[in-house]
Amino acid sequence: MSQREHKRRAIGMIVPSSNRVVERVATRMLATHPDIDLCVARVPYGGIVEGDACPRYRLETFDAAAALLADAGVDVMCWNATRGAILGFAPDRELCQRIEHRTGIAAVTTAIATLELLAKRGGERIGFITQGDESEAAEVSQRFRSEGVDVAAQSWLGIVHNLDAARFDPDELLARIDDLATRSSLDTVVVWSTNLPGFAARLGAPPAWSVEVLDSAEIGVQVALDSLNRRHI
Predict the structure, then answer these.
(1) All domains of the chain, ordered by start, with CATH?
(2) The whole model's pTM is what?
(3) How many angstroms separate the first and last alpha carbons of the chain?
(4) Cystine design at 152: which of 60, 76, 92, 125 (Cβ 3.0–4.6 Å)?
(5) Is residue 212 within a helix (H) or strand (E), and if so which, with residue range?
(6) Rounded to whole angstroms, how far apart are CA atoms 224 and 219?
(7) Band of residue 46 on the pLDDT scale cut at 50, 70, 90
(8) Integer angstrom CA distances of residue 165 from 17, 20, 34, 66, 194
């Protein structure tokens, strides 16, 4: 008797090695999609960028992660991290092309998905909260502005070690979001680190809250799901 084959779909996440949040967010979001599996591969947090004058990804590191996800038969891969923005977005586009060429599997990134999402929101007052220092926050804002996104304000948490971002209290993050939005009269606040608990903070916001919170990890998972669904219509 032949065994009946059941084709399950799968999304693959590539995340920095010190990330503890993307899997939490993806698991929560996939709870309503029981037919979709989550597969995760990690790349070294401190070993993914090379070059001083013109920083770019060390692509061989991503090749290994993508190959492992391809072994699992995923339908789409997402680089669910925010580094691409501070590098100027072009490295993320190059990474997607490389993954697709080498594996034949569609690839998306959180940075590109966020850029495309915000580009459609003309007229909104948008702010960013980043995990690093003031100079990093300013550079992230400048990168988005250079792509046509009008960033009205930014704030930063001063977190030095990426793992510490995953331990940041969601209620404290929500208070920081509220403070930034109130001071700058914002419509939307983007939590710009996939290792900050932006998803949990958003879920903890009051029901009648007027500020929209966009969590970068959530955006990454959602763009992977959207890509997956477009391929299975």
Answers:
(1) 9-110+218-230 (3.40.50.2300), 113-215 (3.40.50.1860)
(2) 0.94
(3) 31
(4) 125
(5) strand 212-215
(6) 9
(7) confident
(8) 13, 9, 29, 25, 9
